[in-house]
Amino acid sequence: MPMNSSEALEAARMSPERSLRTGQGSAVNGILINGALGAAKLVAGLLGHSYALVADACESFADVAGSCVTLYGLRKAAEPPDPKHPSGHGRAETLAAMVTALALVTIGALIFSHALQSIGEPRRAPNPLTLLILVPVIFVKERMFHWMLARGKAIGSTAVVSDAWHQRSDVVTSVAALAGIVIAWIGGPAWNHADSWAAMLASVWLMGTGLWLLGPTLHELMEGSVDPALLEFIRETSQDCEGIRGVDKVWVRKLGMRLMVDMHVIVDPNISVKEGHDLAHAVKARLQHELPQVRDVMVHVEPYEPELMKPASPLPEGGTR
């Protein structure tokens, strides 16, 4: 799930407006497609006596809710800063990703509970005609997963990436339902509960995926380190500005798709305060030009001293000299 170095840089170079449009487009497509697929699976599951397919339909409707949360989170994150939120509302996008992850865990637990209860109940064998719904659904949802994952990584959105994995969870439940129906159909009355067992197996995967997706969101909420290549690019870009003798420290906080940069630059100790101020603004302008996703840059100006230019000792994760 984590983006590689080239993906992190490309996401930071994309304009905020384009990122928002891309993310919102992914969420809207998810709402429309999952709504239609969920309705088809629900009808087929009820008519075809397949518990796994009904559970699969519930997972599709949960995907609709997840895409709605993603859409709201992206729109909220795009709102400009205000007196109560001077750094903007970027965390709304991260919180949307967390809600999506927790929803997967909750849905998985509910499906497991209901499937477990259904094992001891009399069951009719699932109708094999339900496979006419499941097979195309699997192909559509797998394609959706790859499409949304690529778009989420392209814009650096944790929420869209989490939503993509929500689509993949629907593929798993659909495959489980297909396996359960085929086993019950071939095995006869003794295997009528096969799709309940399949639903239980799929639910375990759902809960595991939800817990796995919580990792990156918690990392971002705890202001964990960003990609080292992005830090290095910021350091080198700043150091290339005329009048900057070096960069002492760089910290970057990720607020949704936007970045907040805090850095220390080294300048000639004999320049005036105004010249130092102008250099700081030049660094900020250069970074925001190269990386449009940088919302703000706090630049601390330090006088040149030989000891500051010595090779830096290793830093703990989260910053660079």
Describe the structure.
The chain is mainly alpha-helical and 321 residues long. It has two domains: 5-221, Up-down Bundle (Alpha-lytic protease prodomain-like); 228-309, Cation efflux protein, cytoplasmic domain (Alpha-Beta Plaits, 2-Layer Sandwich), CATH 3.30.70.1350. It is 65% helix and 9% strand. It contains nine helices and three strands. The protein has helices at residues 5-13, 16-47, 51-77, 91-118, 131-155, 158-187, 194-221, 228-239, 273-290; strands spanning 246-255, 258-267, 294-303. The chain has a three-stranded mixed beta sheet. Helix 3 (51-77) runs antiparallel to helix 6 and helix 6 (158-187) runs antiparallel to helix 7. It is elongated and about 90 Å long. The two termini are 28 Å apart. Residues 312-318 have low confidence and may be disordered.
